[in-house]
Amino acid sequence: MKYRTILLFGAPGAGKGTQGKILGAIPNFYHLACGDTFRRLTPESELGRVFLSYSTRGELVPDEPVLQLWRQNIEAATREGRFDPAADILVLDGIPRNPNQARMLSESLDVRLVLYFSCSDLNKMVLRLQRRAVRENRPDDANAAVIRKRLEVFEAESKPLLDYYGPDVLRTIDATQTPLQVLRDVLRAVEERIG
Fold it and tell me: 48, 84 in Cβ contact below 8 A?
């Protein structure tokens, strides 16, 4: 059985997490943020060490550990009754990150909608991430050089996903708007594609 899925896509700091949490609070939507699951890992665990070694350099974690962690989390959520694949829409934030991951997940995901949070102002993204670092105790968001590296990596490795999924399911959201305006556009796109 494939999971009916909405993908939240955009550069770090574009607002995916904020909007994902809101969607995840709606009955029959289940939000899973890959970055949050990595940050919950302990540095002593094998996956925790892998995540730290890449995130502190602003690089993406390789595909295999990302998909391993994703599968563990989906299976746990299903087992614990937090996610019902037959009834719920899966809202994914931070996975897949590149076309190879998308291909690897194609047997598991029925992607109904890709929401691309677009923000062309690089300085605004850096400031958002630095504020988030302080608010949420996220050291991977504190260093401006690491942030700029993450944004460069996003452009090079992640943006090709937009072509992979194509225009039929893609909706671009202007992430420079207020969070309320972004939410309005998100809900319109969800209603249009999911009903």
Answer: no
Angle between the 179-193 and 16-24 helix axes, to the nearest 10 degrees?
A: 60
Beta-carbon contacts of residue 107 (< 8 Å; ≥ 6 apart): 2
Task: At 172, list the tokens.
Answer: 């671009």
Q: 157: domain range?
A: 3-193
Q: What is the Cα–Cα distance from 83 to 23, expressed in whole angstroms? A: 14
For residue 98, what are the CA distances in angstroms to 20, 38, 66, 102, 103? 19, 17, 11, 6, 9
Q: Is residue 121 within 8 Å of 176, Cβ to Cβ?
A: yes
Determine contact, residues 97/55, Cβ cutoff 8 Å: no
Q: What value does the mean pLDDT take over residues 80-96?
A: 96
Domain at 89, CATH number: 3.40.50.300
Domain count, the chain: 1
CA distances in angstroms from 139 to 33, 62, 134, listed in the order given: 17, 20, 8
What residue type is 167 in one-letter code?
Answer: P
The model's pTM is 0.83
- Residue 173 and residue 142: Cα distance in Å, rounded? 26
Could you identify the residue written with the tokens 């550990």? 65
Give the residue with greater pLDDT, 77 vs 142: 77
Between 12 and 99, residue with greater pLDDT: 99
CA distance 8 to 190: 11
The rounded distance, in Å, linking the Cα atoms of 26 and 48 is: 30
